[in-house]
Amino acid sequence: MVTHTVDTIEVWSLAKILGVMGLLWGLILAVSWVVAGFLGAGLPGPLELVVSVTGGVLYGVLGGAITAIIYNAAASLIGGIEIELS
Questions:
Q1: Torsion over CA of 11, 16, 21 and 23, rounded to 10 degrees?
Q2: CA-CA distance, 51 to 35, in Å (whole number)?
Q3: What pTM, to 2 d.p., does this model score?
Q4: What is the DSSP string of 13-70?
Q5: Going residue by residue through the chain (86 aa), what tens digit of pLDDT does each one get?
Q6: CA nearest 52: which of 30, 31, 79, 33?
Q7: 3-state class (DSSP) for residue 7
Q8: Buried-exposed string 42-74: b where 16+ CB fall within 10 A, e elsewhere
Q9: How many CA atoms lie within 13 A of 69 on its CB side?
């Protein structure tokens, strides 16, 4: 096993990945709201569906960027995460 250290995370790289994950979670939320609506909970409006998807993307991108910035600052002070690769 070889141990590697993650010294820095590219801000835009993590922001993109978490943005896509936020998009997927937003879509899952929107679909579950529609299914719940058809089961009697009341259908969501189009604005709620759009906000769930775009909110997921924005939260993912901003959260990813902020997380990468904070990680890079912490890693420069105390060292990065060590991972073992085979």
A1: 130
A2: 17
A3: 0.84
A4: HHHHHHHHHHHHHHHHHHHHHHHHIIIII-PPPHHHHHHHHHHHHHHHHHHHHHHHHH
A5: 899 999 999 999 999 999 999 999 999 999 999 999 999 888 888 999 999 999 999 999 999 999 999 999 999 999 999 999 98
A6: 30
A7: coil
A8: eebeeeebebbbeebbebbbebbbeebeebbee
A9: 8
